[in-house]
Structures are given as C-alpha cells and as structure tokens.
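cron nightly-structures :: item 1 of 1
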Amino acid sequence: MGSTRIRFATLRAAIFWPLCLAAPGFSPAPAFGIPAPAIQTPADRDPNRQETVVVYLVRHAEKANDGTDDPPLAIAGRIRVQTLKALLADVSITHVRTTDWKRTRDTARPFAEGAGLELGIYDPRELETLATEIMVTPGRHLVVGHSNTTPQLVAALGGDAGGEIDDLEYDRLYILVIEPGRATVTTLLRFGEPYVKGRDFGLRAEHPRRGPRGTPRR
C-alpha cells in the first residue's frame, strides 16, 4: 500500500509540473537542470498572442468482450477511468473530446459530467483539423482516442508520441504544453494497471477484434 501511495503521489507531481510550465511568467529553478525561459513583463507581451494550451491525451480504457464491434468498457476499464479521474482531480478541464464509440465515450463522459461540459465528438479521420482547432483554443483539453489515433494526434500537435501503442496497452497518459512561439513540451506518464507486453491479465477479450479498414483500432 505504501509503494502504491508513493507512486500515485509521484504521478500527481508529474501532472502538476506541466501546469507550472503553462503558468504565465513561470521560470523553472536552475536546480532542476532545466534552462529557465526568458520572463516577459506585461508590457513585453503581444496583446494578440494566444494563451497556452494544455492537452491530456489517452487511449480509451479496456473494453468489454460483448461480441459486438462497439463494446462498452469492461470492469477493468471502468477502474482505469476512476484512477485517471483521481490523478486529474486538481486539473480544471475546460474541453472534453472523444470519438463516437462507446468505449471512448465511456472513458470521456465522467470528466465531462464532472466539469459540467458537453462531450465534443471528433472524427478520427480528421486529426489534423482537430489539432488545428485545439491549438487555437486556450484551456485544458482532455482527448480520448484509440491505439492508432492517439500517437498520431500527439504528433499533429507537435509532441513526441514515443512510438506506437500496443493492442493491449492502455496506461499511457500524454500531457502536452503548447505555447505560441515555442516547441511543444511532451510529458508521457503511465497510470493504473501497468502494461506488460503480450499480457492482458484476463481483464478483456483474449483475441482483439479489428474493425473495417479506415476505422480506429480499439
């Protein structure tokens, strides 16, 4: 229990760090080994300058094996969503975006309901359009996608996707800090039941179903 609490606290701290980067005038202390950016005074700032955007991106959680092409979340998936909610409890999400599948809507809905927001449905075939919209919309965005769309969207937003997501991999959390005129800052965290290559711990269907060509994978 003690190690679990330490890991959770470490994740919360890692989530807080990108929020510090997004704060106006924030300068990392030299002790962290991070070069301090130039601090602008209000007079130096461009009045037409866009505000910083913070984006949280996840693949949907584990899906149920109900024999359909559009299953809801499995029990393990619902547990993972609650873990993510606890991690992001102090983040004031301003936009929640998801594809129009049960497993992605089930992952995103608790965040939208908690923040009093409507679910923003996006087309996974139009990721460049979505990225452009997000980058010009100040706030804190939660985006729920699929194993083959989430890394692509991270890249479209200027972030580092860190490679493809495996079929059984559900524990990635990307945090992107997008500030006009600067390179996107990418933080990749792991949360919930850890991913072990080739293992699903009996928590979901043993044989993943693939949709028609052109549709998202899980």
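cron nightly-structures :: done
The first helix runs from residue 2 to 22.
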